[in-house]
Amino acid sequence: MSSHHDPRTALLPERDIHKIPVMECRALGIDFGGLTAVDDFNITVAPTEIAGLIGPNGAGKTTIFNLLTKVYKPSRGAMFLNGKNTKHMTTIKANKAGIARTFQNIRLFKEMTVMQNVLVGLHNEMNYNLVDAIFRAPKYWRAERIAKERAHELLSIFNMQDDGERKAGSLPYGSQRRLEIVRALATNPCILLLDEPAAGMNPSETSDLMENIKEIRDIFKIAILLIEHDMNLVMGICEGIAVINYGRVIAKGTPEDIQNDPVVIEAYLGKERENAEGHRH
User: Fold this and answer.
1) CA proximity to 212, closest of 169, 155, 253
2) Which of 28, 87, 164, 235 has the most crowded CB, counting CB atoms within 10 A?
3) Quick one: DSSP state of residue 21?
4) Cα gap 110→112, rounded to integer Å
5) What is the pLDDT of residue 58?
6) CA gap 56, 37 in Å, rounded
């Protein structure tokens, strides 16, 4: 992760130095009714990098994810995916082009089975048409079979292959989180955006999740950008981190740089102090 003025700085992982960044944001900004929510947001994410966005609550992190996934149109600036300008992309096109995300509040189809949830993600990859589906042509059955095998493979990354027929809503919380990641992976992304994946997880689930995230990067050779409050997780797996405060990047660097950055410490400790004082009143 590096600034766009010099996308080849040593911050990009060594293995990705000569590759086109999977995602590059240049001076991205958005205003809501005259208020600037995000301003001058610049990052470069390498093709197999695990990168993090951190910052106090209300700093603009989820707004940035909404810009990256085309839920919002930026007021200014540009975003590139594998070198292509994404200006005219809709949310659906962005997903087909390779941007997948999970949400802070789990958004599974709770009444559907685990397998059906993954199959929904796989529909991007299906190559039969409506006529085939209506007449249940051989092509349809073949595609269905391949999709189910693929869903089974994806579930097995998280040891969830035996949960296929369970209702998604009946899974324990940590498993629902993992299922949401599996469904996002089913869309065959080149970058996976995880919005607070460790929220609500206990320490042992969180450490499993860290391993899972590394595994996903290694198996699928994709980039992962995560928003997270759990500093152990962020510092444990991210290679590049951007710190957001009041909608702007206030620091960028390796976990080590970030931990020792006085501006970051001030932003966080300042917030903590305000919160503590707020609770006292």
Assistant:
1) 155
2) 28
3) P
4) 6
5) 83
6) 14
pLDDT digits 0-9 by tens, 15-70: 777 889 999 999 999 999 989 999 999 999 999 999 999 998 888 999 999 999 99
H helix runs in 172-261, sequence order: 173-186, 203-220, 231-237, 255-259
| Domain spans in the chain, listed from the N-terminal domain onward | 2-98+189-280, 108-188
Three-state SS at 68: helix
- Nearest-angstrom CA–CA distance, 135 and 132: 5
Nearest Cα to Cα of residue 240 among 14, 28, 19: 14
Give the Cα separation of 60 and 47 in Å (integer): 24
In the block, which residue shows the tokens 């410490």?
265
Q: What share of the chain is helix, strand, coil (3-state, %, to 5)?
A: 45, 20, 35
The structure tokens listed for 253 are 């660097």
Nearest Cα residue to 186 out of 210, 154, 148, 139: 154
pLDDT digits (tens, 9 = 90+) for 106-163: 889 889 999 999 988 887 655 555 666 666 677 767 777 888 888 998 999 888 999 9
Q: Name the residue with tokens 């992976």.
A: 185
The two structure tokens encoding residue 218: 């290694």
